[in-house]
Amino acid sequence: MEYAQILQNMSLEEIRAVVEILQKSSDSYIYVFDLDTDTYMMTSRMQMRFPFEEDVVENATSSIQKVIYPSDYNKVKEDIVRCVSGEQEFHAMEYRWLDRDNRIVWISCKGTVIRGAGGHRLLVGRVTELGKEAKADNITGLRREIRFQYDAEEILRDRPETIRYMMRIGIDNFKEINEKEGPEAGDNVLRELADCIVAVVDPKVDVYRLMADEFIIVDAFSSTAVDVQAIYNEIRNNVAETVRKKEYSCFYTVSAGVIQDGFESRSAEEILKLTEFAESGEAQRQKSDGTV
Asked: Could you tell me the pTM of the whole model?
């Protein structure tokens, strides 16, 4: 018998019991979202991980807002509304949630709409933490290098003409910070730099954390030319202001390398080589090879 047919004959309590059983054999979090009553049912493990007050949430579309990262909420809501209206029969998105310590967690949420108990339309699926698959970084809340490789290869292959620039940024004295101040201080610096970068670029521009202390910005969104020098200067100013506010208790500086053209026939690996940091740390574009 198909899974959908089984659910049709189950009460709410029976469905919750099945979900808990399924959870025991999965690293992902299993959920059932009743689209007709706007009720979200989850496993106890999921409730413990994220700031849900109960394992059954009513008025879910609005209640879940406190769990979803603010700038991601509207796009998630729009997708759910399409499921509610019957415009689509699935939900498959990657976005950010906040855990009980208010830390960013990248998740992949997938679900399929089926007919459940009482004929209700149920979105049944799973939530997977991408950080556990090394696709996202739970220290900074950014996607990781493996995701950059995937996304960059797709853009470079299908629409390289849309790329305005790629900027790679690193912390000059990160090893020293880890050795003298400890890994917790190093993690704080990574979070600070991520915040400094995200505060400057357009929300639609992609930012990734690479290995160790390195980040890369990929602007394949802007419709007109951008002032890369100004962007880099503003990021550095943000970093300097952050260090100043902490009364220089953990001092660090950043350097960057940029490529603004010549993306055709390039691979993600070649882009990383081209964006090696300039020794001076100054973002001055060298037209000979496109790096700064």
From this structure: 0.58
